[in-house]
Design brief:
- Two copies of one chain form a homodimer.
- With 251 residues, chain A is mainly α.
- In chain A, 79% of the residues lie in helices and 3% in strands.
- Chain A has a three-stranded antiparallel beta sheet with strand order 1-3-2.
- In chain A, helix 2 (41-68) packs antiparallel against helix 3 (91-112), helix 2 packs antiparallel against helix 8 (213-250) and helix 3 packs parallel to helix 8 (213-250).
- Chain A is globular.
- Bound molecules: retinal (2 copies).
- One retinal (RET) binds next to helix 3, helix 4, helix 5, helix 7 and helix 8 of chain A.
- The site of one retinal (RET) has 18 residues of chain A, from helix 3, helix 4, helix 5, helix 7 and helix 8.
Chain lengths: 251, 251
């Protein structure tokens, strides 16, 4: 496949946007750590680590992209084609998710500061389910045929559905015990989670729907990138806001 | 030997997973240092350094791998063969272990916060034994014949057995003096140590057992990598948990 200069430049700049967003959200959170009560620092620390991990992977994704697509046109004003001997490694996303998706759930549970028992019961179910969801998606994404892709996508949807069930049915009970001022923000956070996490399985389906070619691929990369900014950076900033609000109301 | 694209991509992504895991566990520990009592900071600092050292070595291992195996296929969609003039350096692992294995034992002893005398008596025996174990394994790993490999493997097993003896017989007495809440977590840590450290001598034996070919080599690299994540990152997180629990119960 080949990319026009506009397509190439767009992806190039979007990837760089993700690096800047993740890296500096991470730095912001580390600097802001002393501004919340100690009991909320676990959530912010994990959020900082998540954004740091994402920054690392987008550095890698960016380099993988610029090494895999080249042009011979002077000043780069031409089509970009795939080079011999290098590939764009889609796998970085799965390595990233394998680490960050369980941690995003940990952030959510940590910022609620529930009783220790409730916390560990939630995490014992959410974290393995998240790891399983990503691990099952990987062979599907790497497969070259749509059947394998479909089967692993379906398998991966089972833990996905389970995670949503735990977050939207079980967690609702714990919400009642949160201070009234933050209850709305927590609902907002959960909504953001649903809206952004839903993007990933939809993007995964695109190649199977016969939507292909370079436009679809460009759309996919931009979709994943924007979803990653919302699901990690914006999510972290809302977590920070909840931690600040709870720090005030606990005081 | 040559690798298929799936084998190459799998190792590539696993190595990157190890880099991300080690690097960000290290950063997490440094950020979290103020969250435990000063007497437990030695253990966390050492854990952070261990994961940092491992991140460095996996950067090297990753680069060594991508330089040693190349393909000429467009988009990287083909077999990867060993290039002329570059080798995959298995030695990085031994350099890493020579530094990190003694430090992992130091972490364990430090988090127990035993009497100063007991600590130094344990370390005076564990650290030289660990260094000797790795130093004796290196010539065996580098040797091309199975006899040399076997002899040095056997020699290296002597300090290995001694370390296990000290950890499981002598340390058990000190465990009785730990707060009840953390005793279970410490036992868990020791079990993790036994389960993960046991992977290394088994992997070492594989070539001697006639199991060869690229599948075995891929399995070996994945096995070492996963063991390194468990023996350093998960181990460090359990150390962190012990330090947090003890900080609460001492307070
Ligand atoms: C259900 C499903 C998937 C779900 C992926 C999700 C939910 C990813 C979330 C990623 C996040 C939140 C990243 C970090 O910001 C896969 C693996 C695409 C495979 C197809 C089925
Ligand atoms: C007994 C034995 C070995 C033991 C190696 C061990 C126990 C390594 C542990 C490494 C760790 C814990 C790494 C860091 O995470 C060797 C050297 C393979 C040589 C064969 C005999």
């Amino acid at each position: 496949d080949s990319l026009t200069q506009i397509q190439y430049d767009t992806i190039y700049n979007v990837f760089s946007l993700v690096i800047a967003s993740q890296l500096f959200t991470s730095i912001f959170l580390v600097i802001s750590l002393p501004r919340v009560l100690p009991r909320y620092r676990q959530a912010l620390t994990v959020a900082a680590v998540v954004c740091g991990i994402a920054a690392y992977h987008y550095f890698r994704i960016f380099n993988s992209f610029t090494e895999a697509f080249v042009t011979e046109a002077v000043g780069g004003r031409g089509d970009y084609v795939q080079v011999a001997g290098a590939s764009f490694n889609e796998g970085y996303r799965y390595v990233d998710w394998l680490l960050t998706v369980p941690l995003l759930l940990l952030e959510l549970v940590a910022v609620l500061a529930l009783a220790r028992k409730v916390q560990s019961s939630l995490l014992k179910r959410l974290i393995p389910a998240a790891a399983l969801m990503i691990a099952l998606g990987y062979p599907g994404e790497m497969a070259s045929d749509n059947l394998t892709r479909g089967i692993f996508g379906l398998l991966s949807s089972v833990p996905f559905a389970y995670i949503l069930y735990v977050l939207f049915v079980e967690l609702t009970r714990s919400l009642a015990r949160q201070p009234a001022t933050v209850r709305k923000t927590i609902s907002l956070l959960r909504l953001l989670l649903l809206a952004t996490w839903g993007v990933y399985p939809i993007a995964y389906l695109l190649p199977g729907l016969g939507i292909d070619g370079s436009d679809a691929w460009v759309g996919l990369q931009i979709g994943y990138s924007v979803a990653d900014i919302l699901a990690k950076c914006l999510y972290a900033l809302i977590i920070f806001r909840i931690a600040r609000m709870k720090s005030f109301s606990d005081d």
